[in-house]
Amino acid sequence: MSEQAVSKRPVVYLAEFDSPDAIIHAAEGVRDAGYEKWDVHTPYPVHGMDAAMGLTDSGLGWIVLLCGLTGVTAAVTMIQWMNGYDYPLVIGGKPPDAIPSMVPIMFELMVLLSAFGAVFGMFGLNELPKHHHPVFYSDRFEAFSHDKFFVSIEVEDKKFDTQKTKELLEGLHSTHVELVEEEVS
Amino acid sequence: MSDAKKTPDSMKYRIPEGSAWDGAWKMALTVAALGGLVALGGAFMDPKRFAFSYLYGFVTVLTLWLGSVFFVLIQHLTSAGWSVSVRRASEFFVSGVVVLPFLFAPLIPNFKTLYPWWTTDKTGVAEAQEHAAAAPKGEGHEGAAVTEGEGEHSPAELIEEATLAKKSAYLNHTFFGIRMCVYFAVWLFLGLRLFRYSTAQDATRDKQWTVKLQGFAPVATILFAFSLTFAGFDWIMSLEPGWYSTMFGVRIFATSAVTSFACIILVTLGWKRAGLVHDEINTEHLHDLGKLMFGFLVFWAYISFSEFFLIWYAAIPEETIYFHRRWDDQSWRTISCMIVGLKFIVPFYLIMSRNAKRNNGLIGLGAGWLLAMHLVEIYYWIMPYYKPHAGVQWSGIWMEAGCVMATVGVYMTRVLWNMRKHSLIAVGDPRLSRALDFVNA
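Above: the input entities. Below: the structure tokens describing the complete assembly.
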């Protein structure tokens, strides 16, 4: 380890709460204060959190719909081109471009692309994979997967102010407010 | 909030005297009476058409009832908490079971008109059976019937006759009658028990009724599944006795489920609009009912297409005849296409989105749409047999309208009558607070 003094800069405020009711109340407070770059960390899903955080509908449904429609269209185009036009084959006495025989492929390709859209769209919207986040610098943060509830507000938020944000979090009855700092090399 | 505060009392959700819902049964009765007059007129003018029209009306009611039983049974099977506040809506439909045997009665003298095997089983079938028995092993039944058949019969008829001979152990008058009695015995048992146990709990709030219903549900589900499937074979599939399909029972089940979800949604929306219930049945419950309706709609489409697809691919005449009847003529073809387009594709996109399911107007529109298309689908099941190879007989469609009004009207009279007598929400169920707190994550 280097002996040099390293400079640090604040990255995120971390406020600790003891109960799901307290975290819901806190989330409502942060939402009403108008913050945008913030998050809540809980050991289990807390009912009503979406509304408390003011989250709007995720756009994932539209991604999945678009992927599904792409799958159907791709299947129709592919089979019509291959079986109906480019290399027509009569199988079982059916017309080469019969619609019923396309349906299973349409269905499968729709499901496949929808599933890809759902999984990778979810990754994209959640900014995953994310290997590290400054909240992990805090020693107390580990309790988020055990019995504590946290609110984190990032410095990059437009409304962030070292003093005011701290007052807000304390005013929401946080049991412990911590300004997490990151080392700058 | 304490539990005592959350559990509302049994008089809170009653239809007040003199309100629109209080008099709704009279409207249903009027519709039934008007429909009954029209149907009666039809029975004199064209007895053959009346037989099919009335079967159409009866099957419409039966599928609605079966779907409601399915919903209630599944809630008890899974000990569902979310659905307690909407379960009673479905239980009212279940309670209409008492009118089913009476509604079925006018069909009994019409069996000979409806079911082709009813008249042939004494002569042709018995003969063919003899031939089949006399034929040496290894030679198919069909061969025996074809070689021994009378000169005036076409090969198609002979094949049908041989098929009927094979099926005669099942499709004969005695066994058919016995099964009919068994179905109604089972259904009365199921329907009355599900309704009475649940309403008995309203006043007493005794947990034992929930325990009893949960113990009863597995047996009831098995009885339900078998009675539904075999009643479908008997009363609907045997209109085409030569036809084979292992998927038909599932198709009845799927379409029944969709219909009953549509009914629960419409009835609960109606209660909400009249101010009979408020937040006890909220967007969360309607969202879940919408999900189930959507899911079963897709399931219905999936199994219906699978059934068609296998028959289309194999192209065996005794199987394809079912679809030929509904495709060769342009008017039936239009109805077939309508079912694909308007019963599946349009409502699929209409109620797919989460926002649509959480919007009372849109989910109500979807439910109403599916109910209307249910009438078209049952028409497509039954009516091609009235005049085979002749297309849809539009000019006499008033008779089908009359029969549907009569059967649905009588059934709804009973359902709406029971609504006046009992709480609209299962207030005695110990899981009610779970339903009131329920939120879709």
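Note for the figure: Chain B has one domain: 16-115+171-436.
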